[in-house]
Amino acid sequence: MKNVVFIPNIDLGNGRNNSYHYSIDSWSNWCDLYDCELLVWEDLLFPIEQMKITWQRYYLFDILDANKIEYDQILMVDADTIVHPDCPNFFTETDRKYCGVMNNGDYEWVMRSIRGFGDILFEGKRIKPWNYINGGFQIVNETHKDFFSEMKGYYLENQDKIIETIKELRTATDQTILNFMLVEHNIDVKILPQCYNLSDLWRKNLLYVGEGCWWEDDLINLYNSGWVYHFNAIPKNTELDRDANYWILRIYKELYSYRRPNEGSILLRNG
User: Fold this and answer.
1) Is-above-0.85 flag for pTM?
2) Which residue from 46, 135, 174, 179 has the fewest beta carbons nearer than 10 Å?
3) Dihedral over Cα of 55, 56, 60, 65: its sign
């Protein structure tokens, strides 16, 4: 059985996924290097008003079973990422545990999310921000199937309250609840190095967005800081109008100018 990279790529008609095929192609290249299967999920299971895409990804094992996909370990990764062509095989570093990367970005956002979801949904409990993983890069295996069932069940039992809380807090959708649930269910989580999900790039001063930046308009610092680049939390209006789509396309072109896009992915059906 092969390791699998699973990427949700849902077109909601708002242009957000315009550049995601470049992300998918970068992961196709990586999968070719390490003999992994790339699976692309493009169809909603539920209307997003009923369940955000981030929550629907916890139907991962159902989707794989419906498509008769055999698997060893699975990376569930966001489509607003680009993987460097020299990225090592992180599947060898998991110890077969539930793996993620610490959400090393806006701590005010994280703490506000922990307080809000903790007070409303988890009886005032708190979790530690230094153990708080980003939901956009999760490695799991068959032993985590029951936990994903717990995640689905928790949502369905608390759907209205979760939807209301997401609107009220304006922070996470599934991510903070995921981190609470990992603690509640005593899941043995291994936190992988930040290089495998280098996020919040704008706050790390790794992206040139205008003349206020004192460094050169190149990507040397970015490429030397990690292997997987996650284009989240980028301001919509910057001086040069460089949004996530801009950066995904630019970095893909710099790293993969020799590739023909989308050479080796499998599209999934929902069941």
Assistant:
1) yes
2) 46
3) positive
* Alpha carbons 78 and 173: distance in angstroms, whole number: 14
Distance of alpha carbon 11 from alpha carbon 128, whole angstroms = 34
Mean pLDDT by 10 residues, the chain (271 residues): 96 86 97 98 95 97 96 98 98 98 96 98 97 98 98 98 97 97 98 98 94 92 98 88 94 83 58 55
pLDDT reported for residue 16:
80
| ∠ Cα 105 109 110 (to 5°) | 75
Q: Output phi, psi for 57, to 5 deg.
A: -65, -15
Query: Please, are residues 27 and 39 in contact by the beta-carbon 8 Å criterion?
Result: no
CB contact at 8 A, 2 and 36: yes
> What's the CATH number for 4-193+261-268?
3.90.550.10
Measured CA to CA in angstroms, residue 264 lies from 21, 36, 260 at distances of: 12, 10, 10
CA distance 148 to 60: 8
**In the block, residue with structure tokens 């967005």:** 209
The runs of H, that is alpha helices, within 122-158 are 145-157
